[in-house]
Write a structure and sequence with these properties.
Elements lengths: L4 E3 L2 E3 L3 E3 L21 E3 L16 E4 L2 E4 L8 H12 L5 E6 L4 H11 L6 E5 L16 H14 L4 E4 L7 H10 L4 E4 L3 E4 L1 E2 L4 E2 L5 E5 L4 H14 L4 E4 L5 H10 L3 E4 L2 H4 L3 H15 L14
Parallel strand pairs: 3-16, 4-7, 7-8, 8-9, 9-10, 10-15, 15-16
Antiparallel strand pairs: 1-2, 5-6, 6-14, 11-14, 12-13
Helix pairs in contact: 2-3, 3-4, 4-5, 5-6, 6-8
C-alpha cells in the first residue's frame, strides 16, 4: 500500500501535514508522538523581525470551531534558524516554513535568508495586510497576489506554496493568478473572517473585533474551494479546513488535494495529525486501494 505523494518534485511519506500556527514548531507535540509519522511539519508564520501580535483576548470558541486574532506573533527568522530548524531536522519528515510580512520586501527578505537553510518548502501567507496598499490582504486581490508570487519566486530556492485566503469572490481566479505567477503549489483555505460578541459584557469577544474562524464549521466551504481550485490549475493543491479525522482528509483528497493539513484539531487532540494519517491508511485498506494517488481528484 503506497501512501507517498509528490509535491513539486519532493516526496512525502504520506499526505498529512500540520497547518501553520497550530503546531508551533513541533516541539510540544513531539512529546506525544514521533513527528516522523507525518508527511511534513509546517512551522508557525515567521517574519523578518519578531512580531508581538495583537492585544488580548485573542481567542474565542465558537459552536464548531474557534476564532483567533493572534496577529501572527512570532520570534522572527533568527530564532527559527537557530532553534527550530535544528530541532525539526531530528525527525524523518519534511519541513515547511510559513512566511509572513507586512510588505513585499519583508517576505523576500525571509525567503532569501531561508534559501540556504534545510527547508523543503516555503508557504507564503498572503492573508497578511499589505501596509503599503492601505491594509488589504495580499491574497484578496489577484493582481497583488500575482505580484508578490513573482517577487518571492525570484528569491526562493525551495518550492513555493501560496496559501490562499477564502475571503475572496472567486477562489478559482486567485488560484490561477498564483499559478500564472509561478507558484509551485497552492494551499487553502486560510481562516474565514468572523466575529463574536459577548452579550453579557456587551463587547467584542476579541480585542481585534474580528478574527479568523477555523475548525469543523469551515470544512464544507473548504472542500468546495479546494475542488474549485484543483480544477482551475495544474499545480498541486494542499487542502485544509476543519480536518479532524481520516474521513475528513479523504473528502479533500477526493476533491483534488494532493496533500492535507491538520490545524485546529491539534488544539483539542494532540494526536490529531497522526490519527488522520492512520485514518487514511484505514480507508485505503477498507476499500482495497493500493496507491493514494489513484484517489486524488477521483470525484469529478
Amino acid at each position: 500500500m503506497n501512501t507517498k505523494v509528490t509535491l513539486a518534485g519532493v516526496e512525502l511519506k504520506n499526505p498529512v501535514m500540520t497547518a501553520s500556527g497550530t503546531f508551533g514548531s513541533g516541539a510540544e507535540y513531539s512529546e506525544f508522538y514521533d513527528l516522523g509519522a507525518l508527511g511534513a511539519v509546517v512551522t508557525k508564520g515567521v517574519a523578518n523581525t519578531p512580531w508581538p501580535g495583537n492585544p488580548t483576548p485573542r481567542i474565542a470558541e465558537t459552536a464548531s470551531g474557534m476564532l483567533n486574532a493572534i496577529g501572527l506573533q512570532n520570534p522572527g527568522m533568527d530564532v527559527l534558524i537557530e532553534r527550530d530548524l535544528p530541532f525539526l531536522k531530528k525527525f524523518d519528515t519534511k519541513i515547511v516554513v510559513n512566511v509572513c510580512g507586512k510588505t513585499t520586501e519583508d517576505y523576500c527578505q525571509v525567503v532569501e535568508r531561508l534559501s540556504a537553510e534545510p527547508v523543503d518548502f516555503l508557504e507564503i501567507n498572503v492573508s497578511c495586510p499589505n501596509v503599503k496598499e492601505g491594509g488589504i490582504a495580499f491574497g484578496q486581490n489577484p493582481k497583488a497576489l500575482e505580484a508578490i508570487t513573482r517577487e518571492v519566486k525570484k528569491y526562493a530556492k525551495q518550492p513555493v506554496i501560496m496559501k490562499l485566503s477564502p475571503n475572496v469572490t472567486d477562489i478559482s481566479e486567485m488560484a490561477r493568478a498564483a499559478e500564472c505567477a509561478g507558484a509551485d503549489i497552492i494551499s487553502l483555505i486560510n481562516t474565514i473572517t468572523g466575529m463574536k460578541i459577548d452579550i453579557h459584557k456587551r463587547t467584542f469577544a476579541l480585542a481585534n473585533k474580528t478574527g479568523g474562524m477555523s475548525g469543523p464549521a469551515v470544512k464544507p466551504v473548504a472542500v468546495r474551494m479546494v475542488y474549485q481550485a484543483a480544477h482551475a490549475v495544474k499545480i498541486p493543491v494542499i487542502g485544509m479546513g476543519g480536518i479532524c479525522t481520516g474521513e475528513d482528509a479523504m473528502e479533500f483528497i477526493l476533491a483534488g488535494a494532493t496533500a492535507v493539513s491538520v490545524g485546529t484539531a491539534n488544539f483539542r487532540n494532540p494526536y490529531a495529525a497522526k490519527e488522520v494519517a492512520e485514518g487514511i491508511e484505514d480507508y485505503m485498506k477498507k476499500y482495497q486501494v493500493e496507491d493514494i494517488r489513484s484517489l486524488i481528484g477521483a470525484v469529478e
